[in-house]
UniProtKB/TrEMBL annotation:
Stretches of the chain forming a coiled coil according to its record: 84-111, 175-234
Entries under Pfam families matching the protein: Jacalin
Biological classification of the source: Eukaryota, Fungi, Fungi incertae sedis, Mucoromycota, Glomeromycotina
Entry keyword set: Coiled coil
Protein name: 13022_t:CDS:1
């Protein structure tokens, strides 16, 4: 879209703002992962410290009941002082972890806010881009511009823009809801912090009534954390580029058609050149023969072209490819040691289609608006 000849005024702005939004989403994901890790460690530590306090209180209680039967005086007081000191130290260990957790949560909330802001900016630019694409189509249908290629480009870019607008509108409520969830999480942490400080301030042993509120705030925090995974799923995080390339293209691939391109034709005409059109995917392939015939599969207008000359009698050694819902990238290796450029994008899983034990006589695959799949035909 950055080089669009349809959305001229806003194409670059839309491209830049979507790239920026993608980065903000990645940062938010990283910050969120770090917070979850810290929160789980904190809750584990919190449970252990409270367990230690509870066990120590029980031990002292049993001990004091025995001492009362034998002694009256300082021993009981000394034991109480030791217990009070023990409780304060354990609570101090909890208290020291809270600022770091709060700071990480603050970073998560800030990053989510940046994603919301970026999505809002992207939406505004996309609305302007949508108007440009719609105007280009109006000009075509009114007869002011008669260009089939431009019309198809305008239809394609309008569809892309409208789809991304729909996505941004759908994720906006999820982002707001998740931000509210995180803010509630922050309030639960603040409640625990407040109660820990309160109990630590005692010069005497905290009673069951005193600790009751501390235990309640801890229980509330644990319940909030239990909702974390479901809240994250509701957020429905999926990168913008993944929506665009996987979801849109999957729908286009329902009509993929098989093709076969031979290295040598029955009339002895041989392959002279392979032309690859690519963008973030492999958009089209063309095979040119010595008899001046050619075969094209896919939509050439959707990508930049690259030519790889083919020598008479040359065979395919193997093909490297990156695939997912479509063919994202491709590279040819021949038995003469020649290698084509990598053409396409960075997405997909990498594979090597190997021709090791048989003679390669051609290429087979499938195509729709773009190349869906590719392989080697062997004798």
């Amino acid at each position: 879209m950055k080089k669009s000849d349809i959305i001229v005024k806003n194409g670059k702005l839309i491209s830049d703002v979507l790239i920026g939004l993608d980065k903000e989403i990645q940062v938010a994901g990283d910050e969120l992962g770090e917070f979850r890790h810290q929160a789980e460690n904190f809750l584990w530590s919190l449970a252990n410290e409270i367990k230690s306090i509870t066990e120590e209180v029980e031990k002292v209680k049993q001990s004091e009941e025995n001492w009362v039967n034998k002694f009256i005086g300082s021993n009981s007081q000394s034991t109480s002082n030791i217990l009070a000191s023990f409780i304060r130290e354990r609570l101090k260990a909890i208290e020291k972890q809270i600022p770091g957790l709060q700071e990480q949560l603050k970073q998560v909330i800030n990053s989510i806010s940046k994603v919301q802001h970026g999505a809002s900016n992207a939406h505004a630019y996309l609305i302007d881009g949508e108007r440009e694409a719609e105007q280009a189509l109006k000009n075509h249908w009114s007869g002011e511009v008669i260009d089939y290629y431009l019309r198809k480009r305008a239809e394609s870019e309008l569809k892309q823009v409208q789809y991304i607008i729909k996505l941004l509108r759908e994720i906006a409520p999820s982002l707001m809801n998740f931000e509210e969830f995180l803010k509630e999480y922050r309030r639960k942490i603040q409640d625990v912090d407040k109660e820990v400080r309160y109990v630590r301030s005692f010069t005497k042993i905290a009673t069951a009534e005193d600790i009751k509120y501390l235990k309640k705030t801890i229980d509330d925090l644990e319940k909030q954390h239990e909702k974390f995974s479901s809240a994250e799923k509701q957020l429905g995080y999926k990168p913008i580029d993944s929506y665009y390339f996987d979801d849109i293209i999957n729908s286009r691939n329902r009509d993929c058609t098989e093709f076969r391109a031979m290295i040598e034709k029955p009339n002895k005409a041989y392959l002279k050149k392979i032309r690859i059109w690519s963008s973030d995917i492999v958009n089209a392939l063309a095979f040119f023969y010595s008899d001046d015939t050619s075969a094209i599969y896919g939509t050439p207008g959707d990508g930049d072209s690259y030519d790889f000359d083919w020598h008479k009698g040359e065979k395919i050694k193997h093909i490297f490819k990156r695939v997912g819902s479509v063919l994202y990238a491709i590279q040819f290796h021949t038995d003469q040691g020649r290698i084509s450029d990598w053409r396409g994008g960075e997405k997909g899983d990498s594979y090597r289609v190997l021709n090791e034990y048989a003679s390669a006589i051609g290429i087979h695959g499938s195509f729709s608006r773009q190349i869906c799949s590719i392989g080697i035909i062997t004798r």
